[in-house]
Write a structure and sequence with these properties.
The protein has 254 residues and is of the alpha+beta class. The longest helix has 17 residues. The chain binds ligand MTE and molybdenum atom (MO). One of its GO terms (molecular function) is oxidoreductase activity.
Length: 254
């Protein structure tokens, strides 16, 4: 079941009577639509294979009408706004902060191996960013706290030869991102979401956040950032998701 708020008018009962084959699907869609309309602000609905709180109608409508500073619409095409990040699974790594290591390597002049406390000593930023999951949900203004990737890139002395960033995570999960996308202001390694330490399901103790690409690029349980000359498909990119994952062109599958 999807929670698209369709604007198509419901067919009349006469129309349905003429097309019995369509009836069950149409009735289900009508019921769903009514449910979502009646449900309204803050309602809990079953969608995307889970239980969600649908964003208030007003909030969703407002966001749909908003334009970002870069001129793109705030909500990318085909996305439904929900109020809270949905845990999307994956195999967690070691969540202990004391044992945590982040390796920054590849095309750099100064390889780094940072512990959790080392990362806390580097300039912290908090950014409210919208995130967009390829399965169709969007969360507006998730507040991430951590260290910008640009800061880490500077410290490591990224070479001119670097063109892509490979985020490396526990159990071999990787995600590839073009260097230009990775150096955007809002891209970071984050240890807090909405002011609270990351939970295990959201990638504790540290995850990547690349909000302007589909959320699979935001590796949880992050263990490394590798700068490379040549692109390398990551975990989902090898399994049919597109290489870049731009939500505004609905670049979902390859
Ligand atoms: N290490 C790791 N990171 C991962 C994944 C994963 O399976 N393993 N899944 C990705 C996918 S497909 C999505 S949609 C987001 C989901 O993040 P969330 O569970 O915090 O919502 O994490 C991404 N990062
Ligand atoms: Mo995903």
């Amino acid at each position: 079941m999807t929670a698209k708020l369709s604007r198509e008018p419901d067919p009349t009962l006469e129309e349905l009577a003429r097309e019995p084959a369509r009836r069950p699907a149409v009735l289900r869609a009508m019921a769903r639509r009514r449910f979502l309309q009646q449900a309204g602000a803050g309602a809990t609905v079953l969608a995307f294979g889970g239980i969600y709180t649908i964003a208030e109608d007003g909030l969703f409508a407002r966001a749909k009408a908003e334009t970002r500073a870069d001129g793109r619409p705030r909500v990318p095409p085909g996305q439904q706004v929900i109020t809270k990040l949905r845990p999307m699974g994956g195999e967690p790594g070691d969540t202990s902060k004391s044992k945590y290591r982040l390796r920054i390597h590849g095309e750099v002049s100064n390889e780094l191996d940072l512990g959790f406390r080392d990362l806390l000593k580097i300039t912290q930023v908090t950014r409210a960013s919208d995130v967009h999951c390829v399965t169709g949900w969007t969360v507006l203004g998730a507040k991430w706290t951590g260290v910008q990737l640009q800061t880490l890139a500077k410290r490591a002395g990224v070479k001119d030869t670097a063109r892509f960033v490979i985020f490396e995570a526990a159990h071999g999960y990787t995600a590839n991102v073009p260097l230009a996308d990775a150096l955007a202001d809002e891209v970071m390694v984050a240890h807090k979401l909405d002011g609270a330490p990351l939970t295990t399901e959201h990638g504790a103790p540290m995850r990547a956040v690349v909000p302007d690409l589909y959320f699979w690029k935001s590796a949880k349980w992050l263990t490394g950032i590798r700068f490379v000359r040549r692109d390398e498909s990551g975990y989902w990119e090898r399994r049919g998701y597109s290489n870049r994952g731009d939500p505004w062109t609905e670049d979902r599958y390859s």
